[in-house]
Every structure is written in structure tokens, then in C-alpha cells.
Amino acid sequence: MSKIGITVEVDQPYDVALGRGLLSDLAAYLPDDAKRLMILFDPVVAGPIPALVDDLRRDGFEVHLLAVPSGEEAKTIAVATAVWQRLGEAGFTRTDVLIGIGGGTTTDLTGFVAATWLRGVPVVLVPTTLLSMVDAAIGGKTGINTDEGKNLVGSFHQPAAVICDQDLLGTLPTEEIVSGMAEVVKAGLVADPSILDVVWSGPQETLKPTSPLLTELIRRAVAVKAEVVADDPDESGRRTILNYGHTFGHAIEQVEHFKWRHGDAVAVGMVYAAEVAVRAGLMDPSLLGLHRELLSAVGLPIAYNSGRWAQLWPAMRRDKKNQGRTRRLVLLEDVGRPVVVRDIPEDLLEEAYQAISAVPGAAPYPVKTAADYTLENPYGTPAYVPPVDEDAPAPPSQSGSVVS
Ligand SMILES: NC(=O)c1ccc[n+]([C@@H]2O[C@H](COP(=O)([O-])OP(=O)(O)OC[C@H]3O[C@@H](n4cnc5c(N)ncnc54)[C@H](O)[C@@H]3O)[C@@H](O)[C@H]2O)c1
Questions:
Q1: 77 phi and psi, to 5 degrees?
Q2: Residue 72 CA, ligand 1 centroid: distance in Å
């Protein structure tokens, strides 16, 4: 199976390797002077770990293994302290390497420990969820949660390499792939309209862990993230566009006590942002229809319960993207044309909330159907044609393709 590498051009550039069967080749992605390794892993992906450790030991590495809790339980100061203790016992030095194998919670924790141990040791990340492949593992944002909130303690620390082995998605429940798809669609909406074409070309097919359509989506979404991060590594400017849908999404996550999947909340957040943009006269209403159609087609939610504005609004005002007392929201003027808008009046923001909490179908704007998009491609991007790969399984049906 072919491998692709996308380089993230930060101060110390690193590769995001994409493909299948990459985990067994992990040694090839380690820094040259690495001798001692500590692998932090989510126990749900323990299957391939024994063979990996055997290989690494055969290659002469000293390997330490530490299972960390699944999910947000990993991102606590207690878990970080336990890892620091193990690093101390193992005598970890600045040339030794941490490896994180798991979803975004594992990669956030591993990155955080790597950023803080000896003020920074190399880290190689092996994301095992779609969300962590296209988003969390790339870009150097690391963090843990505290009683005061999510991701409030952390540091920027770029990895030495990121290995996205699509085979690892094989055990991932479909609802987690769906959740990750929100970040894929977001990358399409803010930066690369061709991603939307690929999703349209087979929304259900994209949810199959090893489908060529998903391979293509991961590649394009990683390319968006790599380019934006390289342009603004410490999120002081343009990188904020990647927060599209996240202000309202984070508010939902807080109100729901983090029982909602991140991607599900971001999907509703993007529809909310589109409702705001239409009301603010920034965006054509048909693009709001596109948000709804695309996100629904891959099984993401597009509406949120009514009667919660009194809880959502304070959460939105505490958003990390705000600066001092200035509230900021990422909106779209069009696909690929994000803008950061300041201090939108609260009544407009509440109106947009009322719209997304209304019964689906009651939206005051005409909602285009998928059929409309098979007849016209509003963004002028070429239709997606899967590459010919003789090793690949039969190509998916193209019945829903966008025709340019
Ligand atoms: N650092 C960043 O830039 C950034 C960006 C986006 C999100 N995040 C963080 O990422 C986290 C969300 O990421 P996530 O959705 O990957 O969360 P996660 O790590 O909790 O994974 C989701 C679930 O899938 C399970 N899982 C992981 N890989 C699996 C596999 N291959 N097979 C079966 N089950 C598997 C996990 O145990 C968990 O239950 C949040 O903490 C969020 O704050 C960070």
C-alpha cells in the first residue's frame, strides 16, 4: 500500500505519514539518536502493541509501556503525574522519546507530558481516531483538563512525527468516525472546497474505515491543517479559522457536561455559525442549506435542544477565542472564505440559536437538497474522481457525485 507524507513546515518541520500498515514501521519515524522509548497507549488499541514492542526491542530500543485511561480520564494532572514518575524512574533524558498511541485524549496527554518533562522531549504521535488523525495530533497543541475547564492547562509542543495508519481505524465505532467527519467537513468549509466534493461523492462510503474515499479525505484534511499550522504555529492569527463551529460547539459540550462527542457538538456549531452569518448578511442562505445537507448526509446532528440559551450564552462568552472583553466568532462569507467577526449583538446570536433549536425543516431559508448539488456545483471545484489503485478494493459507487 502506498505511503504519503505531508510535511508541517514549522521551525522544526515534521512529517505526517499517511497510509496503511505504518505502525509496524514506527522505528523509521523516530529521531536518529533515540534509544529509550516510553509508549503511552489507550488500552482499547492494545491489540497491535505487543508485536510493536517486540519489533522495537529487536531493533535495539529500550521500551517502556504505560497504559493510560481511555477518553477524557487520561487528561488529568493525576495521570500526568503518574507518567512523570515513570519517566523519572526510567531515567528519561532529552534524547529519549515519548510515543502516544490513541485518540485525541491520548495524544493531548502525551504531548503535554513531552512538553513539560525536562522542558521538552521529542514526541511521536500515532492517532487512532479520525478526529485525532485530521486534527488533534497535528499542530502541537497539547493539554489536560482541570476542575476549572477543558484544555485550560497546556503548551505548544510540536511532535517529531505523526503516523496516521488507517488500519488502526478498523476497530473504531462508526459513531466516532462520524464525529471525526465534522472536523473533515470543517476543513472543507474553511479552506478546501474539494473536500466537500469528496464527501458528496459517497457520504456513507466515507464512514468505512478503510475506504479509498476516507483515505482521500484524511489526506486533504491533514493538508489543510498542516498548511494553516505552518502559517500560524502558535495560534496568534489565521489558525483561529480552524475553530469554525467551535464557539457554539464548546458551549454545547459544557452544557452537556462533555457527554456529547466533540465532533457532534462542532457540527451543530457550524450550522449555528452559518445561521449567524446569514443573519449578519455575510453569507448566502444556500450555503446554510449546504451545511445542513452535508453534515446530515454523514450522520452528524444539525440541531440542538431549545430552552438552553441562558446556559449556552455564558459558556460562549467564556470562549478562549475571545480577547479581553471582545467576543470573537469565526464565520464564513463563502466556502474557503472564513472571517473573524467581533461583538455580534446578542439578540442576533440568540435568534440564530432559536433557528437551530427549531424543528428541522422549519428553517426560514430554502434548504437545498443533495439533488440540487448533483445538478450544479456552486463552488466550481472539479468533481472527485478516485485514483486508480490496483491494490485497492473496488471503488465505491459514485451515484451521489457532484458534477461540475
Ligand atoms: N490538540 C488539539 O489540537 C486538539 C484538537 C481537537 C481535539 N483535541 C482533543 O481531542 C480529544 C478528542 O479526541 P478523540 O475524539 O480522538 O477522543 P478519544 O481519545 O477520547 O477517543 C474517542 C473514543 O474512541 C476510543 N478509541 C480511540 N481509538 C480507537 C480505536 N482505534 N478503536 C476503538 N476505539 C478507539 C477511545 O478509547 C475513546 O473512547 C479531546 O480531548 C479534545 O480536546 C485536541
A1: -65, -30
A2: 8
